[in-house]
Amino acid sequence: MQSSQTKKLAEQLVARDRQHIWHPYSSATQHPPLYPIARAEGVRLYLKDGRVLIDGMSSWWSVIHGYNHAELNEAITQQLDKMAHVMFGGLTHEPAVQLAETLVRLTPEGLNRVFFSDSGSVAVEVAIKMVLQYWQSRGQSGKHKLLSLRRGYHGDTFAAMSVCDPDTGMHHLFHEILVQQIFSDSPGCRFDQPWDDAYIQDFETQITSHSEQLAAVILEPIVQGTGGMNFYSPEFLRRVRALCSKHNVLLIADEIATGFGRTGKLFACEHAGISPDILCLGKSLTAGYMTLAATLCTDEIAVGISEGEASVFMHGPTFMANPLACSVALKSCEILEREPWQKWVARLEQVMSKELSPARELPQVADVRVLGGIGVIELKEPITLANEQDKFVQAGIWVRPFGKLVYIMPPFVISELDLTKLCRALVEVVKTIHP
Ligand SMILES: *Cc1c(COP(=O)(O)O)cnc(C)c1O
């Protein structure tokens, strides 16, 4: 299958890439493995050297319906014939309006106003700017700090970084520049563990003692993703909501990773039956087709901002509400509303629970946990990705571990057979990692 010709072409591409390109969290001088890819279809990635991999990552949570999806392709090409892009200042269009209506309808109650942007980090920046402008408008500009959870992840831009975990985030690199925020302990109560009031104690202490300064709490509901794949109790989220209301602090829910079904509910806030004041969406919003994000807020915040000194919300990205991105996002929502995605995610949870559990017995494994469409094997020691990445590829699966975490979140449409293959290959590779 791997002819020497295709292998050579793939190697040449890597060499050219290394002359000029940055990859995520990459070095210009050290070269971990890099795999040229030719195309992707369904749950399969076709490498340029001829190898075919089952995708365990959904391209970082986003490709929920699989790659090269006929209907999603069609949505983009139809829009392409009309208009690829147009500025959003002073103009509006059908895809943006329909998508906003759909998001307001699908998301937790009370989130009536939608701000579109290009990426998750910017959606978080927008959320932070919204709460700051809101309190300024209300004459309470002393409320300008955020309370965030340890092990949280909210993106790589500066305001977003300031609310990421202060130890594993990039705070030590930028501590003189980053705004100092307030942190409370990562939720200790596992998703299905019995509740004890001790779990909310640190959070309650922080919000009570800083409420005068606090504009908002920001958190990832139920699943803390990149910062540790921590699945926590809905009761924690309910308590946070109640404490925010009690202390006059807004609540920002960052559902950029959890939104659109990944945790088994359409939005993770639904596990706790709560509505945040602001909601950030991204990643799977366009089913992994285009870059688009959205920040939704309540009428109270929207009107508050608009009645303030600035009288407008001070943000306006060039590619705001790009029509191609809005069209494909709308189609992805339509597919979710039409298809039994709850069953698909329940099957993911069931198969991953069964197939990953043998890893629990391995000496190098600290924990195995599954929630909805997310399966995690936590190792005792961090992985050196440069040494281990190729093992996964040789096993025919695309998995990209991070620190101690080997995790998968496959496209919802993966077949039971492919999912079983993916999980079994994953466990086999884990057996070979610092045994
Ligand atoms: C990925 C992610 C972000 C950042 O989104 P980008 O599109 O990478 O900027 C923010 N918050 C959470 C929870 C995420 O998972």
Question: Top keywords for this entry?
Answer:
binds pyridoxal-5'-phosphate; Aspartate Aminotransferase, domain 1; single chain; 17% strand; 435 residues; 2 domains; alpha/beta
Structural summary, described in words:
By secondary structure, the protein is an alpha/beta fold. The chain folds into 2 domains: 4-68 and 340-431, Aspartate Aminotransferase, domain 1; 70-338, Aspartate Aminotransferase, domain 2 (3-Layer(aba) Sandwich). Helix content is 38%, strand content 17%. The chain has 14 helices and 16 strands. The protein has helices spanning 4-20, 58-61, 70-82, 94-106, 120-137, 158-162, 171-174, 201-210, 234-246, 299-306, 323-338, 341-356, 385-394, 416-432; strands spanning 37-41, 44-47, 52-55, 111-117, 145-149, 182-184, 214-219, 223-224, 230-231, 250-254, 278-281, 293-298, 365-371, 374-379, 397-398, 405-408. The strands form 4 sheets. It has a 7-stranded mixed beta sheet, with helices on both faces. Strands 1-2-3-15 form a 4-stranded mixed beta sheet. Helix 3 (70-82) packs antiparallel against helix 11 and helix 4 runs parallel beside helix 11. The longest helix has 18 residues, at 120-137. It is globular, with a radius of gyration of 22 Å. The mean pLDDT is 96. The protein binds pyridoxal-5'-phosphate. Pyridoxal-5'-phosphate (PLP) binds at residues 119-121, 124, 153-155, 220, 225-226, 254, 256-257, 282-283.
